[in-house]
Here is the input.
Amino acid sequence: MAIEIKVPALGESVTEATVGQWFKQPGDTVAVDEPLVELETDKVTVEVPAPSAGVLADIKVQQGSTVAVGAVLGTIDSAPAQGTAKPAAVASAPAAAPGPGARPEPAAAAPSARPATPPPELPARGDGAMPAAPAARKVMAEEGLSPAEVVGTGRRGQILKEDAMAAVARREAAPAATTASAVSVPVPAHQIRAPSVPNDAGREERVAMTRLRQTIARRLKDAQNTAAMLTTFNDVDMSAIMKLRSDYKELFEKRHQVKLGFMAFFVKACIQALKEVPAVNAEIDGQDIIYKNYYHIGVAVGTDRGLVVPVLREADRLSFAEIEQAIADFGRRARDGKLSIEEMQGGTFTISNGGVYGSLLSTPILNAPQSGILGMHRIEERAVVRNGQIVARPMMNLALSYDHRLVDGREAVTFLVRVKDYLEDPQRLVLEL
Here is the structure.
């Protein structure tokens, strides 16, 4: 019996998606709830599970196509009953020898070993679980590599372009066998030819933007076109927080089963500063200003698909441990594409940590319609003056981008100075001073 694979409900206000990778091909056996295909929406990537066990009969919508909620993506033939005879077993039984004088009967029509129309070539796979990425398949085809020669490092063992390039590099690095006839013979100067210049077009790769990347590009450009963005900077001495973490990190992890990071301190510091400077936690709606008397803090997370911003709701009511646990969970599920659309909506202020990638300074772009975003950067030892002495301190640059239509320079600078004060004296966060 054929069972349809349909596009599931994708969340509020989301009516269509783009078909991503198919994890299975027609003829593959599938188990119930096994992921079959990825769907990319404006905000998240959703895996569509198999509604039933059986064999994937056909794929009706190919990668890159746009589909609406409820559309049929393909069909599954449910698993055959256990008593059903398998044609392959019958075909493998040896034919009875003909009796004396009997004319040999013509052999029954069997499937041709070489069908007239070859089946479509399946994508190269790393370990048989995930098709290789299109860019990786192209490199492998050009270099004559088989999937067995490449170690996939992507999700579920998927072969990425970098994996294919690494395999090519390993092969080229292997010492070439020398032969007795390989004797270096000088080439006359007049016979030396300049190396041929490769065709640039042949070395380019054109890939369609994912729906998520299109949305990121559109939202960032809209924010630049709409808001009067300005950035103010400050630096913060991280000595006190680093000492606090060093003193209590083992006890904290033992008690709460999560590591004590920097983000909980920054979230707490920003919330206290937002309470003092409410304009940074507000937004413009037409001719009105909406002041948010709640604190839903967005935490930017980078993934291989792009930047996503899950939201810590009611963050002012969360403990340090609850904040760290939520952020760790967001990071894991963001990398696996498991975040829901609802988890990335409704933020009032955003924190972006470019320091994890080594950024020294940046001007973050607003996450519209919010009016403020804080950029964190890497910590580095710098010479600073303390009590008339030049000493080395672990310093971090902070950047606050804000909508100047709503937030005045005085308010922006006050906000950032408050954040700095709380971080340099973290006891004030506990006492809410």
Notes: The chain has a mean pLDDT of 80.
